[in-house]
Design goal:
Elements: H1 8-28, H2 37-45, H3 51-77, H4 81-105, H5 111-136, H6 140-182, H7 186-200, H8 204-212, H9 215-222, H10 232-242, H11 246-254, H12 257-266, H13 272-285, H14 297-316, H15 320-336, H16 339-346, H17 349-357, H18 366-379, H19 385-391, H20 394-401, H21 411-431, H22 435-443, H23 446-455, H24 464-480, H25 487-494, H26 498-506
Helix pairs in contact: 1-4, 3-4, 3-6, 4-5, 5-6, 6-7, 6-9, 7-10, 8-11, 9-10, 10-13, 12-13, 12-14, 13-15, 14-15, 15-18, 18-21, 20-21, 21-24, 23-24, 24-26
GO molecular function: cytoskeletal anchor activity
InterPro entries: ARM-like (IPR011989), ARM-type_fold (IPR016024), Armadillo (IPR000225), Insc_C (IPR045789), INSC_LBD (IPR031938), INSC_LBD_sf (IPR038205), Inscuteable (IPR039921)
Protein name: INSC protein
């Protein structure tokens, strides 16, 4: 869950109310604070405004319970019975609170859910009673024999809890999808899609639940209805989230999702925001990090149309975000199928991308430059690319990318900068088989910069991948222009085996004198 990534103080502040409620529940033994029904409802629902808010509250409770169960297992391992019992009481109360809260806003619960709720409450009560007996037992041998029973009960509680949460989330996903399926109302559909997006942000497991319940089918149904055009961007954004899991991809293939995306991208009547979100879905489903894209046979049938539309979107992008999404999709497609590089060459994509890089308003982050240089690196295997690079002043751009540095120190940005340096060196190495490109690189002082990146770990942020790419580029340029290196550089960085030069550079220590 993304909740874990939130600042710890902020997490504590958010959880404080839940913890306080829990202590109240401990004292009152789950009895209502007020005998007046209206007042009780007002108290319980005071911080709940929508289905989305209710689900967030439920997920927070679930996260707390899951964390507490893990901690109980740790304390049990150390035989800290006092802590085990107090934490068991707390879990018992959290479970009751979670069930009470959920039942106040759920529309209808199945018999299976009621049975699971009752079973979980019974098991929690049994667990609490068990740990209390352990606390009152002083016989060490007896405690050792009881420990395995406590472990079994803890496992049973965890399993019941997991089953209940799975059932609840499935129930909520089903309800939201029924709203999308049955409602012709723009407002209701928008609200349901928004809640579905929030659910999908909670992680891959929830995306799998949504996909299994037909979420991808329902969302593509929206994208095929003109009356919901204003919802296309939001719907496509939700689709991109769900399609990070294999179940989502299979559903996309079954409903001809690729064809629908191609239609949206090639329809000029759609807004730029819609085209950008469609590009985001393409980027997601063609990600080289996914291992389950091979079944996207229909993608090849529509690839030329999609690539053409994405190049146009890059050319006409009004913001850095739109360009990033379109270029990311193109970059992934060049990994997905080599034919894409030939299509890009025919579309003058090299010229368009190089021109965009000179506009700091459009290509404004290392992330965008990473996508551009990825496309250049993959296209550089084609012999015809060399002349395009020369004409578009591409060697100068690659040289500039060798100086890519993070301005914020953010880990993600630093990693992006490393990728830019690495891929620009790879592109130079590939293109420098052409004497004209190699000559331009030498004139732009690429060799001294490559040497600096090899010899100075801080220049490359201690990245081994950047080092290997720079050594390869340096060796290619040295062949084309042997006079550009000093003898010591040649002897250490070019003449030895690549692995020996690599080991030499990784063991170098910079002098701070």
């Amino acid at each position: 869950m993304h909740l874990i990534q939130v600042d710890s103080v902020q997490r504590w502040m958010e959880d404080l109310k839940l913890m306080t409620d829990c202590e109240c529940m401990c004292i009152l033994q789950s009895k209502p604070i007020s005998i007046e029904k209206d007042e009780q409802n007002e108290l319980i629902l005071s911080s709940q405004y929508s289905t989305c808010d209710n689900l967030q509250l439920l997920l927070k409770r679930a996260w707390i319970i899951s964390t507490e169960l893990t901690r109980i297992a740790q304390k049990l391992e150390k035989s800290r019975w006092q802590r085990v019992h107090s934490m068991t009481v707390r879990v018992n109360c959290h479970v009751r609170s979670m069930i009470n809260e959920y039942n106040t806003f759920t529309r209808s619960s199945s018999e299976e859910m009621h049975q699971l709720e009752k079973l979980l409450i019974d098991k929690c009560s049994e667990f609490t009673a068990f740990t209390e007996r352990c606390l009152q037992t002083e016989d060490e041998e007896m405690l050792k024999s009881m420990k395995s029973c406590v472990n079994e009960t803890l496992t049973t509680v965890a399993q019941c809890f997991g089953q209940l949460i799975e059932l609840v989330l499935t129930h909520e996903a089903q309800h939201l999808l029924r709203q999308i399926e049955l409602s012709g109302s723009l407002y209701v559909t928008e609200s349901a899609v928004s809640s579905l997006f929030s659910l999908a942000q909670e992680g891959a497991h929830l995306c799998r639940i949504i996909a299994k319940e037909g979420g991808v089918v329902a969302l593509f149904k929206i994208c095929r209805q003109d009356c919901f055009r204003c919802l296309y961007p939001q719907t496509l954004r939700t689709l991109a989230s769900i399609c990070c899991v294999e179940e989502g991809m299979h559903q996309l293939e079954k409903v001809d999702g690729i064809l629908c995306l191609a239609d949206i991208l090639t329809d000029n009547s759609h807004s730029e925001a819609t085209h950008a979100e469609a590009a985001a879905v393409i980027a997601q489903i063609t990600s080289p990090h996914l291992t389950f894209t091979q079944h996207l046979s229909s993608f090849l049938e529509n690839m030329e149309e999609i690539v053409t539309a994405l190049v146009k979107l890059c050319q006409e992008a009004s913001s850095g975000e739109v360009f990033l999404l379109a270029s990311a999709a193109l970059a992934n497609i060049t990994f997905f199928d080599t034919m894409a590089c030939e299509i890009l060459l025919q579309l003058n994509a090299m010229k368009i991308l190089l021109a965009a890089c000179s506009d700091k308003r459009i290509v404004d982050t290392p992330y965008s430059r990473d996508q551009v240089v990825t496309i250049l690196a993959n296209m550089s295997v084609l012999d015809q690319c060399a002349s395009e690079i020369i004409q578009g002043n591409g060697v100068q751009l690659l040289m500039e990318m060798l100086f890519e540095k993070s301005s914020s120190g953010n880990p993600a940005e630093v990693a992006a900068c490393e990728r830019v340096q690495q891929k620009s060196a790879v592109t130079l190495a590939r293109l420098s088989r052409d004497p004209e490109v190699a000559d331009a690189a030498v004139k732009l002082s690429c060799i001294p910069r490559l040497i600096k990146l090899c010899r100075s770990p801080t220049e490359r942020n201690n990245s081994d991948s950047v080092l290997v790419a720079c050594l390869a580029a340096l060796r290619r340029l040295a062949v084309m222009s042997p006079g550009g290196l000093e003898d010591s550089d040649f002897q250490q960085l070019v003449k030895p085996r690549l692995v020996d030069s690599f080991l030499l550079c990784t063991n170098m220590e910079e002098s701070f004198v």
